[in-house]
Structures are given as structure tokens and as C-alpha cells.
Write a structure and sequence with these properties.
- The chain has 247 residues and is α/β, with parallel strands linked by helices.
- It has two domains: 1-142, Metallo-beta-lactamase, Chain A (4-Layer Sandwich); 169-242, no CATH class.
- The protein has seven helices and twelve strands.
- The chain has helices at residues 76-79, 95-100, 103-106, 108-112, 198-209, 226-239, 241-246; strands at residues 10-13, 18-22, 34-37, 43-46, 67-70, 87-90, 140-141, 147-149, 154-159, 168-172, 177-181, 215-218.
- The radius of gyration is 17 Å and the shape is globular.
- The termini are far apart.
- The chain binds zinc ion (2 copies).
- Residues 32, 75, 77-78, 182, 219-220 line the site of one zinc ion.
Length: 247
């Protein structure tokens, strides 16, 4: 089989010095968005995709400029290439899981068993059975209210559990930008995993209902404005209201 030339990652400028990456050949369940932000003193990458092809060499960052990698949460579709980065940030509730990268915690086995996991192999002879995630212990733990400083841009960590225990979003308040990972996005939200908690998820949605933003870049699907984000949060709260009154 000849070497595969197609660009595995699609890159798109979404404004505000942000590049959005997608992975068009991966099954839609595992085809997450991730983002590269340019700052004055450091760059930031938020999530990293499945890691089916090397990612770090594709990023346009000067060799002497710090690059901070922050994981929104532990699932395979977001953290496959986390280990390629030297500075790795994530929430303490998932710190052990990042160091282990077990199939159960990352859901890697779900990907391996998925029919049509990819529509093109990432390299010749690749098959899903060989998929493994390299452990990526955190070099810094970040939680609610912590700030990631890029010099001219500051991103504040919001701990918004429910989809998973250590799910975080990053808020750049000065520009009204939220990076919301799998907490909220346009598409079916997932709250029935072993690591999910619907009651806690509701509290995270209540926080998002009052958050002032201009745009939210989600871990899946197209980006949202404030009205769209609040609509999704309201929909979740209404859909789970019966459960809340039963508690
Ligand atoms: Zn997830
Ligand atoms: Zn996801």
C-alpha cells in the first residue's frame, strides 16, 4: 500500500488568533474539535484529538516559545496526543487517569470495537485493535478559578463536572470566549457513562445559563453564540427535570 498523503488533521482559522483542528476520517463519535491559541509569551493547545497521527510537529510554534497543553477531560477523543507535549495541565480529579490512560477511563476500548472507526487508515496497515493511548502524567493540576497566562491573554479554568468528574472549560473573559470541551456543544450530550453524574451535570448547566460570552467553541460540533449555548443548557435542565424532582 502506498504512503497515505492526505492531511489527517484539518485546520481552520476561527478568529481571535485561534486555529481549530478536526479529524475528518474518524467516526463522528470520536471526531473531537481541538484548538491552538496564540499568545504573546506562550501558546496554548486545548485538547489534542485521538493521536492517530503525530500532532506536535504540525503546530506552527517557534522552537523557543512555550507551548502549554491543557486537557478538558480524560476521554480518548480529546487526549490521544497529550503525551507529545512537555507541559501538561488537567484537573486533579483525573490526574491519576492521565497517568494511567486505562481503556476503561479513556473509553479507548469503545473506539477499538466501533464498526468503521475510521474511513481512511492513518497509516498503511493500521487497524483499530492496535489503538493504545500513551500515558501523559500532568505536570500541573488546574481547578476552578486558576488562570492560565499567555502574557497578553488569560484563560480562567471553570470546573464543570457531570460528563466526567474532572471536566473543565476555559474562559477568556476579555474576549468572551469559552472553550467548553464535552460539557456543552451542539449535538447529543453524554451523561450516562460510568464517570458521568446527571445531578452534578445539572449544576454545571445552571452555571452556564448565567455565563456571559460571545462565542463558545465546543469539543464537538459547530461553535455556539451565547443564546445557542443557553438554549442547550436550558434544554438539558428541562430534559432532566423529572429526575431532579424525584431526588
Ligand atoms: Zn468526553
Ligand atoms: Zn468528546
Amino acid at each position: 500500500m502506498p504512503a497515505i498523503q492526505l492531511p489527517w488533521y484539518e485546520q481552520r482559522d476561527v478568529g481571535d488568533g485561534i486555529k481549530q483542528f478536526s479529524q475528518p476520517y474518524i467516526h463522528r463519535y470520536f471526531a473531537a474539535n481541538f484548538f491552538h491559541l496564540r499568545g504573546r509569551d506562550a501558546d496554548l493547545i486545548i485538547d489534542f484529538g485521538m493521536g492517530l497521527q503525530p500532532l506536535r510537529p504540525l503546530l506552527d510554534v517557534p522552537p523557543d516559545k512555550p507551548l502549554i497543553a491543557v486537557a478538558t477531560h480524560i476521554h480518548a477523543d480529546h487526549i490521544g496526543a497529550f503525551h507529545e507535549f512537555e507541559t501538561r495541565l488537567g484537573h486533579p480529579l483525573e490526574a491519576d487517569a492521565f497517568a494511567r490512560m486505562s481503556d476503561e477511563e479513556t473509553l479507548a476500548q469503545v473506539f477499538r470495537e466501533l464498526p468503521n472507526a475510521v474511513t481512511q487508515p492513518p497509516c498503511p496497515g493500521w487497524t483499530p485493535e492496535h489503538y493504545r493511548i500513551t500515558p501523559a502524567p500532568l505536570t500541573r493540576q488546574v481547578g476552578e478559578g486558576d488562570v492560565i497566562d499567555l502574557g497578553d491573554r488569560q484563560l480562567q479554568v471553570m470546573h464543570l463536572p457531570g460528563h466526567s468528574h474532572g471536566s473543565i472549560a476555559l474562559l477568556e473573559q476579555a474576549r468572551g470566549i469559552l472553550f467548553s470541551g464535552d460539557v456543552i456543544y451542539r449535538g447529543g450530550l453524554v451523561d450516562d457513562l460510568a464517570c458521568s453524574d446527571k445531578g452534578i451535570y445539572r449544576r454545571s448547566m445552571e452555571r452556564l445559563l448565567t455565563l456571559e460570552i460571545r462565542i463558545a467553541h465546543g469539543g464537538h460540533g459547530p461553535s455556539m453564540d451565547q443564546a445557542q449555548m443557553r438554549e442547550i443548557a436550558r434544554g438539558y435542565l428541562q430534559g432532566t427535570a423529572a429526575m431532579a424532582t424525584a431526588q
